[in-house]
């Protein structure tokens, strides 16, 4: 088993993020608050509760260099939290949204962050020193439905998005006065803010979760049709692969190396995808053991289990009285995993990541002791 630590923090966790030194974790326990826990003497203690939002917090990101937390919520607002002495002080973000904010990510240089929304827009936010607030430039009229996930390219300019219109898009986010010309993509034709670099129509269903590889050469995103898509050479002629699997859909995805991707979702068990020497991606295995063999039970009971796991989740991430989600033997999570985060420290050879889900658990996974996966790390 690759799980090295399991922590039951709440009944349901919407999203989570780690402090730069990984000694603290911030998460939303399916309400309008952000709880921060710190590891003290091998025990997790609640040290802060951030209270500013009016509705469920749908996204959290903790910057690794500046130690700032950004949160977004269904209340259409966002706040940047700065540590001042013993307290976290919120700074206003001008989003101007008329629908819920759904996801947020700091850019690699941490001078911007992107917010995806139910208003079919993406807000790219930057700090205005003279007014002491964060303002946004908005990418409009590009998405046909809610923006479910955003991911920054390592160059700090390109931004990938997924949407419930089934498409993955890549945009330029160059902002004059914030970004430097040296970081702009392409010397001959520099794309302006909001210019669409590519639109990928690979999925026939909702698209959730998108990430770039560490080098920025490969893009991966997942669809609600139990497929994951890998795209190389982002531009006019991208090279795309898709991998279909027999299990329930994924909700999020993470590159742990150039050759390995972890997908998490409704199967409550992280899935490993890897590329061979020729660059062909395929599903390798679950990190936890499966309950049944591939032959399995009859299709009727398989459907009932799938239906229960996918749809029978009550308000706090628990099953209802009629259909009980199946518990996978060896699987650490008991319900849908909706968030995954990398836990690697700079210079460290270990490959760790964390997952959180509707069962209220935060689980830390270590791939270093997985002998069959070392060739991909």
From TrEMBL:
Claim: Repeat is one of the keywords in the record: yes
Which GO cellular component term is one of those annotated?
Arp2/3 protein complex
Q: What InterPro entries would the database entry show?
A: ARPC1 (IPR017383), WD40/YVTN_repeat-like_dom_sf (IPR015943), WD40_repeat_dom_sf (IPR036322), WD40_rpt (IPR001680)
Q: Alphabetically list the UniProt keywords.
A: Actin-binding, Cytoplasm, Cytoskeleton, Repeat, WD repeat
Q: Which SMART domains match?
A: WD40 (SM00320)
Which cell locations does it reside in? Cytoplasm, Cytoskeleton
In the record, what terms sit under GO molecular function?
actin filament binding
Keyword Cell wall biogenesis/degradation applies: no
Which regions does the record annotate with the repeat WD?
Answer: 50-82, 140-172
The record's listing under SUPFAM superfamilies reads: WD40 repeat-like (SSF50978)
Q: Please give a single GO biological process term from the UniProt record.
A: Arp2/3 complex-mediated actin nucleation
Which is an annotated Pfam family here?
WD40
Q: Which Gene3D superfamilies match?
A: YVTN repeat-like/Quinoprotein amine dehydrogenase
Quaternary organization: Component of the Arp2/3 complex composed of ARP2, ARP3, ARPC1/p41-ARC, ARPC2/p34-ARC, ARPC3/p21-ARC, ARPC4/p20-ARC and ARPC5/p16-ARC.
Outline what the protein does.
Functions as component of the Arp2/3 complex which is involved in regulation of actin polymerization and together with an activating nucleation-promoting factor (NPF) mediates the formation of branched actin networks.
Q: Which PANTHER family match?
A: ACTIN-RELATED PROTEIN 2/3 COMPLEX SUBUNIT 1, ACTIN-RELATED PROTEIN 2_3 COMPLEX SUBUNIT
Report the protein name in the record: Actin-related protein 2/3 complex subunit
To which species is this protein native? Gossypium hirsutum
Gene for this chain: LOC107914491
């Amino acid at each position: 088993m690759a799980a090295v630590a399991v922590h039951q923090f709440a009944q349901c966790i919407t999203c989570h993020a780690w402090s730069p030194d990984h000694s603290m974790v911030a998460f939303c326990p399916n309400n309008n608050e952000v709880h921060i826990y710190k590891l003290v003497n091998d025990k997790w203690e609640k040290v802060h509760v951030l209270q500013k939002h009016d509705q469920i917090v749908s996204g959290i990101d903790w910057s690794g260099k500046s130690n700032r937390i950004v949160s977004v919520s269904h209340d259409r607002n966002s706040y940047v939290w700065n540590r001042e002495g013993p307290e976290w002080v919120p700074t206003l973000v001008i989003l101007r949204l008329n629908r819920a904010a759904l996801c947020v990510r700091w850019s690699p240089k941490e001078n911007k962050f992107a917010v995806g929304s139910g208003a079919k827009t993406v807000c790219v936010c930057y700090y205005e020193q003279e007014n002491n607030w964060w303002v946004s430039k908005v990418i409009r009229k590009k998405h046909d439905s809610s923006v479910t996930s955003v991911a920054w390219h390592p160059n700090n300019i390109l931004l990938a998005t997924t949407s419930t219109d089934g498409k993955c898009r890549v945009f330029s986010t160059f902002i004059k006065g914030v970004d430097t010309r040296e970081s702009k993509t392409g010397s001959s034709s520099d794309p302006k803010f909001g210019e669409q670099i590519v639109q990928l129509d690979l999925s026939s269903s909702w698209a959730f979760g998108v990430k770039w590889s560490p080098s920025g050469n490969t893009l991966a995103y997942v669809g609600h049709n139990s497929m994951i898509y890998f795209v190389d050479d982002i531009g006019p002629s991208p090279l795309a692969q898709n991998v279909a699997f027999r299990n329930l859909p994924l909700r999020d995805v993470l590159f742990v190396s150039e050759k390995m991707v972890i997908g998490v979702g409704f199967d409550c068990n992280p899935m490993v995808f890897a590329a061979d020497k020729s660059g062909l991606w395929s599903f390798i295995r679950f990190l936890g053991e499966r309950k049944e063999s591939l032959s399995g039970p009859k299709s009727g009971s398989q459907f009932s289990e799938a239906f229960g796991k996918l749809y029978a989740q009550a308000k706090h991430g628990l099953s209802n009285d009629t259909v009980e989600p199946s518990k996978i033997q060896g699987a650490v999570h008991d319900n849908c995993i909706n968030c995954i985060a990398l836990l690697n420290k700079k210079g460290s050879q270990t490959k760790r990541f964390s997952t959180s889900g509707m069962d209220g658990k935060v689980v830390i996974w270590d791939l270093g002791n997985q002998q069959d996966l070392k060739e991909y790390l």
